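Tokens help. One example:
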Amino acid sequence: MTQASPLSRVQDAIAWITLNRPEQRNALDIPTLKRLHALLDAHQADPAVRVIVLTGAGRSFCAGADLAEWAEAEARGELESYGWTETAHALMRRLHDLDKPTIAAVNGTAVGAGMDLALCCDFRVAGASARFKAGYTGMAYCPDAGASWHLPRLIGAEAAKRLLFLDELWNAERALGAGLVGEVVADAQLLAAVAEFAARLAAGPTFAFAQTKRLIRDGANRSLAQQLEAEQAAGLLCGRSEDAAEALRAVAEKRIPHFQGR
């Protein structure tokens, strides 16, 4: 692993992935995108991992696409073909489709595809100094890594257009008020607060969490009747899980259940 590669560690069933290009404000070049994708694949397949956290080294969460890499591709006449967009899209789909709960611990600025990376997570906890900026229209560009899909669902169409069209810089409190993040904590407490939140999720029935994620993710494309059928099918799977049996035993024995995510 090179110094610039995203760092990864697993502790107490929580996988911590840290973007590690602080001098580039953790900008996403193709090697970083591919490394993140590989880490997500590995953590998804690892039964010891029950929650995944993304954060950034240094003072920024992620500055978005690596514009130096873009400029080099443009100089070669390969801006539209060198593969950044396809690689970024594959990563965003992978992150969004994970069965395991994901948390973005947003330290500092999250711009463009960096903001989109946070939007793909299930939860966003921001440090007080966090800032969010779409960045696209400021460069005479349109969203290209999922913002046009996530933002209207999270904050509504009009607020999404305001953030995208005017390219406003939103501080953490404004992001919280709009529903872009779920919690704001002091910068010094960010990782501790996220660790506590992640531990609560990791101790939960993560098999049921996975079924719930799938229901929410796919529900927008179904009618109510279809969603009820999907809920019934998912409920049968949950009912047959080891966690469900443990939950019933815990009730009978008047104790806290100990879930295994199976």
